[in-house]
Design a protein that fits this description.
single chain, 364 residues, alpha+beta, 3 domains, 10% strand
Length: 364
C-alpha cells in the first residue's frame, strides 16, 4: 500500500510539474531571424516603395522586450506555426500587434490622451505606441536625458519653441524639465547628473566606473562618508574633488523627470501653468532628489540626496527661483539692497538736516 502511495505521489508530482511549467514557445526567435535577420530583406508596396523587414538581432536582444525574454510570437500572436512550403511561411498580412495585451494600464492611460483622441478622429500621423517606443528596439529610458527624451518623443511631431508663448526662459525649461511633467500631470522627481561644463556633455557612468573600478552601487556608497544613506552638501562637494583627481571636470546638472508610471501616457493639450508647481520648496518634484549614474543599457544607479543640498553652488546648473537658493548669493543681494537703502536714506536725512544752512546760502 505504501508503495502505491509513493507511486501516486510521483505521478501527481510529474503532472503538476507539467501543468505549472510555462508553455514552450512554438516558434523560437531564431526561426524568425533566419529571414528577418537579413539586412537586405524588404517588402515592395503596391506604390513601388520598398519597406525594410529587417530586425537587428543585437538591438532587439538589448531592448526592453529582448532582455525580458519576450519572443517574436508573444507579440505577433497570430503566427502559430511556420509553413516553409509557402514563399512566406506565415499569414500575410500579419495582424497588428496589440500592446494592451501586456500593457493594459498604459493603454488605458493612452486612451484618455490627446493622442488617442486624434487617432479616433482619423488624423493622419496621430501617435500610437510604436511612434514613440519603436517597433522592435524599445529602449530603457531611465538613462535618457530630458533633451534625448524630447527628441525621441515630442519633437518628432511638435516644435516646442514655436509654442508655449506664455512660458519664460523656454530653452532653460526644455533643457531641464520633462515635457510630460506639465502635459501629463504625472509624478516626478529630481535627478542630478554628472556634466562636463567645458564640452557641455554628460559623463556616462561607465567612464566613472572604469576609472574607479568596482560596481555602480559600490561607487555611490563610497560617496556617503557618514553612512546615513543620503548625500549631503559637503559630500556632493567632495564628488568634484574625488573625480578631479582622476582627471574629470564635472558639474552637477539637475533635471526634473517623470516617473515611469502608466499616467505618463495620459498626455493633455493644456500644460500646467502654475509656476509654484515647480518653483516652490514644497514642490512635489523636489520630494525625491537623487544623484544618478547612467548605464550603457539605459538604466541608472541612484543614491538619495538631501534636498537642502540644492542650495549649494555645486548645483548651479539647476536653479529654481524660490525652490533652491544659493545662500551666499542671497546674502550678497541683501547687502546690496541694504546699501542702496542706506545711501538713499542717508542722502534724504542729510538734505533735511542741512535745510537751514542751504537757505542761508540761498540754495534750493
Amino acid at each position: 500500500m505504501k508503495g502505491r502511495s509513493w507511486l501516486w505521489a510521483c505521478i501527481m508530482g510529474v503532472v503538476l510539474l507539467f501543468a505549472l511549467s510555462p508553455p514552450l514557445r512554438a516558434i523560437e526567435n531564431s526561426a524568425c531571424l533566419d529571414c528577418h535577420g537579413d539586412p537586405d530583406m524588404v517588402k515592395e508596396l503596391p506604390n513601388g516603395k520598398a519597406v525594410s523587414l529587417y530586425v537587428n538581432p543585437d538591438r532587439f536582444k538589448a531592448s526592453v522586450h529582448g532582455r525580458n525574454g519576450i519572443g517574436c510570437t508573444d507579440c505577433h500572436s497570430d503566427i502559430e506555426k511556420l509553413n516553409y512550403e509557402k514563399e512566406v511561411p506565415h499569414p500575410v498580412p500579419v495582424a497588428p500587434v496589440n500592446c494592451a495585451d501586456c500593457h493594459d494600464e498604459e493603454s488605458a492611460a493612452y486612451e484618455e490622451s490627446v493622442h488617442a483622441k486624434a487617432k479616433a478622429k482619423g488624423i493622419k500621423g496621430a501617435p500610437t505606441c510604436a511612434t514613440c517606443h519603436q517597433y522592435h528596439y524599445t529602449p530603457y529610458l531611465a538613462a535618457y536625458t530630458v533633451k534625448e527624451k524630447r527628441d525621441l518623443f515630442c519633437s518628432k511631431c511638435h516644435d516646442p519653441m514655436s509654442h508655449h508663448k506664455w512660458l519664460t526662459q523656454k530653452e532653460t525649461h526644455f533643457a531641464h524639465v520633462d515635457c510630460s511633467l506639465c502635459h501629463a500631470k504625472t509624478k516626478g522627481m529630481t535627478n542630478l547628473r554628472l556634466y562636463n561644463p567645458l564640452t557641455m556633455k554628460f559623463i556616462p557612468g561607465g567612464r566613472i566606473i572604469k576609472a574607479f573600478g568596482g560596481s555602480y552601487d559600490s561607487f555611490l556608497k563610497s560617496l556617503d562618508a557618514n553612512k546615513n544613506h543620503q548625500l549631503e552638501n559637503e559630500e556632493l562637494k567632495a564628488v568634484s574633488d574625488k573625480l578631479g583627481k582622476k582627471g574629470f571636470r564635472v558639474a552637477l546638472y539637475g533635471e526634473m523627470v517623470a516617473e515611469s508610471t502608466p499616467e505618463v501616457h495620459k498626455i493633455t493639450k493644456n500644460a500646467i501653468r502654475k509656476c509654484d508647481t515647480c518653483h516652490s520648496p514644497k514642490s512635489p518634484y523636489l520630494r525625491s532628489v537623487s544623484f544618478v549614474l547612467t548605464k550603457p543599457d539605459g538604466e541608472i544607479s541612484s543614491y538619495k540626496v538631501e534636498k537642502a543640498s540644492l542650495s549649494s553652488f555645486t548645483t548651479s546648473k539647476f536653479y529654481l527661483l524660490s525652490a533652491t537658493k544659493v545662500k551666499w548669493v542671497d546674502i550678497i543681494g541683501f547687502i546690496l539692497i541694504l546699501a542702496g537703502l542706506c545711501f538713499a536714506g542717508g542722502h534724504f536725512f542729510i538734505r533735511i538736516v542741512t535745510i537751514p544752512i542751504r537757505r542761508k546760502r540761498g540754495d534750493k
